[in-house]
Design a protein that fits this description.
Helix 3 crosses helix 8, helix 9 runs antiparallel to helix 17 and helix 13 packs antiparallel against helix 14. Helix content is 74%, strand content 0%. The chain is globular. By secondary structure, the chain is mainly alpha-helical. The chain has one domain: MFS general substrate transporter like domains (Growth Hormone, Chain: A, Up-down Bundle), CATH 1.20.1250.20.
Length: 438
């Protein structure tokens, strides 16, 4: 089936305006509850891993660049995102998710055994993290598609708000739990906790219904076309709708300029700027993620986001402006409220981006469009490498300032290249069968 044959939204898929202000309304859907639970447990484990391994590498090598490298290794699987998107569109998304969760559990168990037998060294972390990245991206795409598949159209922004809140709740709990366990008990017990969470995430995925709402009722293309043709269909679909191209650019932008600061580079910021230990770094990540959780829930609860791309532009600009003061000389107590406010706009930006992408994409191409979005995640390892190099070559203040100013400059370029992002898709184009011309 050609992409132009699937470029329309049926009336049943047109986004409805939700009247309820309940930020948890999407959880009334049984399948979404298990999709959400599996992702929450998986992310708790994943966030614990990020902090534990970043601190281990930094303490072993004392190199910010090595910390950036271990973070970049986590995203090796992003290069396969378009293929994974085609797999998510072709196969049972529930089974795909169970497979990805099971593989994450197996790899974490392997690393746990290496730690408990006292043979774990730095290069083991790079190998296991690299292999884990190959299944991590598959799980991300399956979760995004399943989340949209298992809620009503008018609840999409609520589901995306909950998903973003889940990420940030995991950063709060995972950071505090990982840092606390590592500090109090050591690397081994911390990794036992990681494995247990992965096991429960796999079990929750297995409880998702075999027939997610609406997905199995769609007339699919069973002609047997190859994966490369299906990937090409997804690329052509994005090219036909410039608003999707602009949104994908912003998916890359925020991964490149802002997300590195809340991931591995937070350990460098905490050590160099505030002289804190692993527990303090966990508190910093938890505060920033707590703000993002609030921002995601508030944005997700808002009834009917009519212009998610314009909302995205506003929140991204403010987000980068709030990045710049992080480079100032301030006490640890003062940086925490700033990180919380910074996180609020991070959460709102994520929800606006995801709602825009899923709202403007036909259900049969969600996997492939989100697969292209998965390539945008590659901006994070690039940002980690850039930030690690800037911190090591110059200082942490330079690292933060460059990330903030670069984000503002690229946002200005995007507004010029894709003016539809500000104008948005009109009400008539959104509610009828086609998008219309950009």
């Amino acid at each position: 089936m050609r992409p132009e044959d699937r470029s329309t939204l049926s009336s049943s898929q047109a986004p409805a305006v939700r009247r309820s202000l309940n930020p948890f309304v999407a959880l009334r859907q049984r399948d979404f509850r298990f999709v959400w639970s599996s992702e929450m447990l998986h992310l708790w484990a994943h966030e614990m891993e990020i902090l534990v391994l970043a601190w281990f590498i930094f303490s072993e090598t004392e190199s910010p660049l090595q910390v950036g490298l271990i973070g970049a290794t986590r995203f090796a699987g992003t290069l396969l995102a378009p293929l994974y998107g085609a797999i998510v569109d072709r196969f049972d998304r529930r089974k795909v998710q169970i497979f990805s969760r099971s593989m994450s559990t197996a790899l974490a168990t392997t690393l746990m055994v290496l730690v408990l037998t006292d043979v774990f060294v730095a290069w083991h972390a790079f190998v296991i993290v690299g292999l884990s990245s190959l299944v991590q991206m598959l799980g991300i795409l399956a979760n995004q598609a399943l989340s949209a598949d298992t809620v009503e159209p008018g609840e999409l922004n609520n589901a995306m708000g909950l998903n973003r809140a889940t990420i940030d709740l995991a950063r709060v709990t995972g950071s505090l739990l990982g840092g606390g366990l590592m500090s109090a008990l050591g690397l081994g017990p911390a990794y036992i906790g990681v494995v247990i969470l992965y096991v429960f995430a796999t079990a929750a995925a297995a409880l998702i219904s075999k027939r997610p709402a609406r997905v199995d009722d769609i007339d699919r293309d069973d002609s047997g076309s190859g994966y490369f043709r299906e990937i090409a269909d997804g690329v052509a679909y994005v090219r036909e709708h410039s608003i999707l191209a602009g949104l994908l650019f912003f998916a890359f932008l925020i991964e490149f300029t802002t997300f590195p600061l809340i991931n591995e580079l937070m350990a460098v910021m905490g050590e160099e700027l505030f002289g804190t230990d692993e527990t303090g770094v966990g508190v910093m990540r938890a505060v920033g993620s707590g703000g993002a959780l609030l921002g995601a829930l508030v944005t997700g609860a808002y009834p009917g986001i009519r212009n998610p791309s314009r909302l995205l532009l506003i929140t991204v600009i403010v987000w980068h402006l709030l990045t710049l003061p992080l480079a100032l000389d301030m006490s640890f107590g003062l940086v925490l409220p700033l990180l919380f406010l910074w996180g609020i706009f991070a959460g709102a930006s994520f929800v606006a981006l995801m709602v825009g992408l899923l709202q403007m994409t036909h259900v049969t191409l969600r996997g492939r469009v989100m697969g292209l979005r998965g390539l945008a995640i590659y901006g994070l390892p690039l940002g980690l490498l850039l930030g690690g190099w800037l911190a090591e070559r110059f200082n942490v203040q330079t690292m933060i300032t460059v990330h903030g100013l670069l984000g503002l400059a690229l946002t200005a370029v995007a507004i010029v290249v894709w003016p539809v992002l500000w104008r948005g898709i009109g009400e008539r184009e959104r509610q009828v069968e086609t998008f219309g011309d950009d």
